[in-house]
Amino acid sequence: MNIKQSFKLLAMFLSVLFVLFPLQKAFAEVMDHTKYQMDWSYSKSKKKPIRTELIKTADGKIAFCLNVDLKSPSGQDLPEMGKVDINVYRVLLNGYPQKSPQELGVSDWREAHYATQLAVWNALKQIDINDLDFRNKNVEKVTKDIVAKASASDELQEITMSVTPTEEQEAVLKNDFFETGLYTVETNAKSGTYKVQATGAPTGAKFVNEKGEAKTEFNVGEKFRILVPKQTPAGGFSFKVIGKLTKLQGIAHKGTPTIQLEKLPIDGQI
User: Fold this and answer.
1) Does a structural domain hold residue 23?
2) Which of 57, 119, 128 is nearest to 93 (CA)?
3) Same-domain status, 127 and 257
4) Which of 173, 182, 229, 186 minimizes the C-alpha distance to 206?
5) Domains in the chain, number
6) Would 11 be classed as within a structural domain?
């Protein structure tokens, strides 16, 4: 008996993205900043120290500056513009607060935060980290590590999903059921679930995980196979995978001529 997968991929996302602020609506965010002491890098081309502040939204999410030469917000309501530059997004995934200070190799969140901010500005070509005279070796190392990892990353903000194998599978009789091999749902989503829905499946057909447990909904990372009762006449059917997946994004907010653009990254708390 053949169990047919009649398409390479039919992925209808019930919830395509979990974003900090859904892109189908316009949002604004009130942001404010807190100063902290630093004298950790000096720009030779700008002839001045490079400084930043801790910027947070009203609900505690950390934001980063997109323009090194403008002021930080002080309670202004900044409208959303959309997704951030992909290079900035990759910096954020490899920097603070997605990575803890300890994961980044430092004990002080300020060093982790400052290094991430430098990497963001470097990605936007606001500064060049090779032009900086670093006065804090921890910051120098973390900044360069974040930049290197972001440069090597191929992570996308958009969700991708595929099912393998894509070719038709032949079910093999084992005890009371014909069994297919394992199917794998591959996705870059951080978390989520997916359902497998059959079209024209015979009575008694079921989807099971690697442990043989029958399920209607699987977690990201779980594989599945199809079981069909052995008394079923020869034939075939198709199925589709419907995902409800989540993936974090970075959102840019519009500033003013004197207040810089802000970007809301992935959730994080100090």
Assistant:
1) no
2) 119
3) yes
4) 229
5) 2
6) no
